[in-house]
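Q: What would this complex look like in 3D?
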Amino acid sequence: MLTVTNVDKFYGGVKAVENVSLEVNKGKIIGLIGTNGAGKTTLFNVISGFDKLDRGSVNFDGQEISNLLPSKIANLGMIRTFQTATGFPRLTVLENLLVFSENNNFEFYKNFLNKNEQNKEQIEKAENLLKKFGLFEKKNQWVVDLSAPELKILEFARAIMGNPQIMLLDEPAAGVNPALLEQLMEIIQELNGEGITFLIVDHNLRFICDISDFIYVMNDGKLIAQGKPDEIVNNELVIETYIGK
Amino acid sequence: MEGFLIFAISILTLAFVYVILCLALNIECGVAGMWDLGIVSYFGVGAYSYAIIVAPEAASYQHYLFGLESNPIYGIVLAIILGGVSAYLIGLPSLRLRREYFLITTIAFSEVLRITFSNENWLTNGVAGIYNIEQPLKSYFSPDNYIVLLFVIFLCFSVIVYKMVNKLSFSTYGLSLKALRENEALAKTARIEPSKQYHSVYVFTGCLAGFSGALYVWLNTLIVPTQFTPNVTFFVWTALIIGGIGNNRGAFLGAIFFVILLETLSFLNLSAELALVVSSLRIALVGLALILILRYLPNGLLREKPTVL
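A: Here is my prediction, written as structure tokens for the whole assembly.
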């Protein structure tokens, strides 16, 4: 489904990502771990079009996407999240979901000439999602008034609204308490059961091992290991990277 | 009609020109989050477009292009088109920048245009400006009735623009602009292409500002480059801040409140010497109002509220 081949990304003389290749198969949950500064988020930015790669290729569903704009990549069904979950602060919870509606037409002329309001079907879909995630009561509140855990949950609701084929989660476990982490894992597994593929970046080894089918490990911009969770936790190089000799 | 009433109606008619400018700035800045300090550019382009089409042929001591004495409707249409075209062209380089850098570029372009209006005699008659631009329909009405007619026409125009801007603000297009304002990176993941949205709203703002420029010349019957200094931009910003950034009703109200405030001191019956001193206090009065609004109502008279669907 998603294939990254020999990708390099340099910032001046700094090699943020060097010769990284990985594969994400449909319906799987793939983890990508590494310490701070390992190049995980840079790789995410390259995959999702926020950064241009210097070498290599990124292929999604048989299409080369390495030179596409983020909006075009999102249009293909790849939706990503960011490390800090702020959403759209001064849009309501409901609007935060509606922005991601698949049927949205953002063209100026269409909106200028026609009455192009959100259709009832999309509003109903968004409301059902909010009910599912326990945010329905707050649908008309600005997102800036939500708590941090609510923001994390809203991220998932928002992404689902866009009917993604694959979700790229950037450090979903960062700053999350154990109870919420448990809840997030349940949500990810449920969505995965519904057919959404995940590529998850985090540096919480336990979280990634608990949830992933396959894991890639990065350090200093390079892939240093890959395997199933039980192989990764016993990999000496990984242990050395995380804990030291 | 009593002098006071005529004066009040005239001031409100001028206020409607500012209402259109304020609504244009609101969809650009309040809804889309683009900090533009060059709205006077398109106001000026619209005003000159209207003037050179509607004004009579230049006299022997004047120089300006065209002077076709044509139907004012053509003047208004040309003002809207050239306001949009100039916004499109200025947007090409300046929309590559964000926030403060965009702001600096737009104010720079507005000064370039003002200097062009002053120096290109062949086009605009330079600093001497263009005078005696006939007001449409004036010959059919008495002077007093014409003032009322202008008030009604300008009110209708500003209400139409309000309806248009409001409809756009609450459409999916408006939602995309608000999403960009709030979080551009996240908006990209919602399939929104920032450059396309920014450019379209910038051109739309240019069209509206051009339209208000045409109305301004219609109202004043003359045009000189000093009418298009950055002061106009700051006035519109002040009006919008007073009314409430992000709220179209606030923009409407803010513009009227601002113009009334600016002209309030003109109501005083003073000696010529004192009037000169007091007139220079007008800007200070606006400044004071701005400080008080920011202190006690930081979101303006009518703040932006969550949209209930």
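A: To summarize the key features: Residues 13-296 of chain B form a domain with the ABC transporter involved in vitamin B12 uptake, BtuC fold (CATH 1.10.3470). The two ends of chain B are 47 Å apart (CA to CA).
Q: Very helpful, thank you.
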